What we know:
Blueprint: H1 3-35, E1 38-47, H2 51-58, E2 65-68, H3 75-84, E3 88-95, H4 114-127, E4 131-138, H5 146-158, E5 162-165, H6 174-180, E6 185-187, E7 190-191, H7 198-215, E8 217-222, H8 226-235, E9 244-246, H9 249-252, H10 260-277
Helix pairs in contact: 1-10, 4-5
Amino acid sequence: MTITNHRARSRQLIKSLFIVCVNILAAINCFGQEKTVANIVLIVDDMGNSLELGQRAINLPGAINYAFLPYSPHRVSLANIAFRQRKEVMLHAPMSNLHSHPVGQGGLTPNMSQQQFLQTLNTNLNSVPHVRGVNNHMGSLMTQLRQPMGWLMAALKQQNLYFVDSRTTPLTVAKSTATKLGVPSLRRDIFLDNERQHDAIAMQFERLIALAKKTGIAVGIGHPHPETLKYLEKTLPTLEQRGIKLVLASQALKPVNCDHERIYCSTEIVMANLENDSPTEN
């Protein structure tokens, strides 16, 4: 092998290694930026029954999601307020449960035909303005049933809405059905206030934070109880200094955007510079 050929091969090897390094570093930088802050999707369920508590909930700082019960007396006025404050509005869709709790007006039940199911769902959606997505109210029975969950997800996909599985049963098929049908979806990780004492809420919220830091994102659901609101009013302003960011559900469901074009463009520029900087063989 001549000295000239050896130098040419060496330069090519250096350029190849450099390209690999550039792409690795760019990818680390891109994906690393997504993980520098732990994200929490916070949903306040059962909105619309109390004007005072609903307004107090909407005044909580940060990007928060509010799930409104259909036919609740204050749903329209509160949803409009939430929308004006750039919060996210969801439908809290009542569904049949295993505990014989009444689902109320607008409830989705197993004895419905597909036509009845879809008509009820659409009426519920139209009863709340500015809806971006849906989660289930109760539903420990309904979310186990594949056929109505299929009807639900097909309807949501048609209307460009997302679904959040409240996971009121470990046997739920709601999120898996959403995924199968291509509906953007999340699942609840933590209920904040099954017990409404301050210490219990605080413990659940700390679990939510720990999970968000571990996985990058966690979904918590609370309710407009006075105890919950008092805790959140005090705690939410401290999240930023702890590296926690509140995000809307629709934001959490956007695909992670890594600027691959920028990565490869920068590689091509570096290659050109290496060529220009290489000594000419005479």
